[in-house]
């Protein structure tokens, strides 16, 4: 399962990913023969997940493209629910959780270093050009920041609790590389998410937060990113057109959506582009209506408004758990990781409302975040004693 997590950012590893994934769930099948003795599933997200899965299944029954919707239901939801259940059972202790976090950081760090060397060093692109690697949707410039920021926030958390000098040095290098890589993509959504989420993680360390935020702002100001912000921040007609187009599709399929398939939205066999584009202002009609650039609009087109609300409920419950553990966690380890999970959820939401969210790479990032939060909730639940002081220092006993 660690290898499944490690391979997530790397393209063209589907065979290995599938191999390791199904090898990891074989022990769970063995446990099923023993009536799941010791198998943990009763988490705060159990009912939100069950409701969303139920409604997603309903959307498949009434889908415009039933076979494709059924395939995507398994590959984009059921498979990751299995991943989630396996991870929370395998990494349910502090030591194993640290191992999982280290795997995420190492994976994203290696990928970031490789991407920077390949794009700017080997391929020879100008340093001011946008980091863009061809060949896979998972490495599109608006997608890879999800992984970079996942590794970044996990590295910051590990740096706070780590005591070993060598490990802290590596984490400092990883933090630097990941932040540079995120900015190099010149993704406005990623920069916005970073600026919103980062203060949440370091809210108790205002001096350090101020210095790091100033450094990030200076890097952005001295990089080509400032041109994208100044030139296109309020002139994104493509995204506005997609929003209006998506709303028109939702009006025709408000309850169960077009089906769980991620491709029905752009398939002319089921969705007539001319019909829906004729309903929106003329200046938006010439843009390519590929997929909604918003996680909630995407879910609304696929599963209807009901499905979108259930999907939003997952994040509402998750945010509530984060706040509860930050305030009442039984030790600093729990409180600090809960704050990290809050930052990760905020990052995912802030960037997700501006991006296409229908890749396996992003699905994995999403369920890694849900898994981390569930594990820390489980650790807190099983920890004896009363809550300790709030998280206010760089070093903890974690």
Concise account of the structure shown:
By secondary structure, the chain is mainly α. It contains 15 helices and no strands.
Alpha-carbon distance between the two ends: 23 Å
Tertiary shape: globular
Q: State the helix count.
A: 15
The helicity comes to 55-70%
Structural class: mainly alpha
Order of helices and strands: HHHHHHHHHHHHHHH
If you had to describe this structure to a student in words, what would you say it looks like?
- The protein is mainly alpha-helical and 398 residues long.
- It is built from 15 helices and no strands.
- It has helices spanning 2-7, 14-33, 46-61, 66-90, 94-122, 144-161, 165-184, 188-201, 206-221, 225-232, 237-252, 273-277, 295-328, 332-352, 360-382.
- It is globular, with a radius of gyration of 21 Å.
- The model is unreliable at 387-398 (pLDDT under 50).
């Amino acid at each position: 399962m660690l290898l499944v997590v490690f391979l997530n950012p790397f393209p063209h590893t589907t065979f290995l990913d599938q191999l390791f994934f199904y090898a990891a769930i074989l022990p769970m099948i063995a446990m099923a023969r023993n009536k799941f003795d010791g198998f943990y599933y009763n988490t705060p997200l159990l009912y939100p997940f069950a409701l969303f899965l139920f409604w997603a299944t309903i959307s498949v029954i009434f889908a415009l493209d039933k076979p494709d919707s059924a395939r995507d239901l398994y590959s984009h939801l059921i498979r990751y629910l299995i991943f989630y259940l396996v991870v929370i059972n395998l990494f349910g202790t502090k030591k194993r959780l640290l191992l999982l976090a280290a795997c995420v950081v190492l994976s994203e760090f290696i990928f970031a270093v490789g991407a920077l060397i390949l794009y700017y060093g080997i391929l020879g692109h100008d340093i001011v050009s946008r980091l863009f690697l061809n060949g896979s949707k998972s490495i599109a410039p608006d997608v890879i920041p999800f992984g970079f920021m996942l590794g970044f926030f996990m590295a910051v958390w590990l740096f706070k609790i780590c005591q070993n000098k060598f490990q802290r040095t590596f984490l400092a290098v990883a933090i630097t590389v990941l932040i540079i890589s995120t900015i190099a993509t010149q993704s406005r959504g990623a920069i916005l998410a970073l600026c919103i989420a980062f203060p949440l993680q370091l809210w108790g360390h205002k001096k350090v937060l101020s210095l790091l935020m100033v450094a990030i702002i200076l890097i952005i100001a001295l990089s080509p990113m400032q041109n994208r912000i100044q030139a296109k921040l309020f002139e994104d007609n493509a995204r506005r057109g997609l929003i209006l187009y998506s709303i028109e599709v939702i009006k025709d399929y408000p309850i169960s959506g077009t089906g769980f398939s991620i491709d029905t939205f752009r398939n002319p066999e089921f969705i007539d582009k001319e019909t829906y584009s004729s309903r929106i202002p003329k200046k938006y009609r010439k843009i390519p209506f590929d997929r909604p650039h918003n996680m909630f609009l995407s879910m609304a087109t696929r599963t209807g408004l009901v499905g979108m609300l259930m999907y939003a409920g997952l994040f509402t419950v998750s945010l509530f758990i984060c706040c509860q553990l930050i305030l009442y966690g039984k030790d600093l380890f729990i409180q600090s990781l809960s704050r990290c999970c809050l930052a990760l959820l905020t990052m995912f939401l802030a960037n997700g409302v501006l991006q296409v969210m229908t890749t396996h790479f992003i699905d994995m990032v999403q369920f890694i975040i849900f898994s981390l939060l569930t594990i820390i909730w489980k650790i807190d639940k099983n920890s004896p004693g009363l809550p300790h002081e709030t998280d206010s220092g760089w070093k903890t006993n974690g």
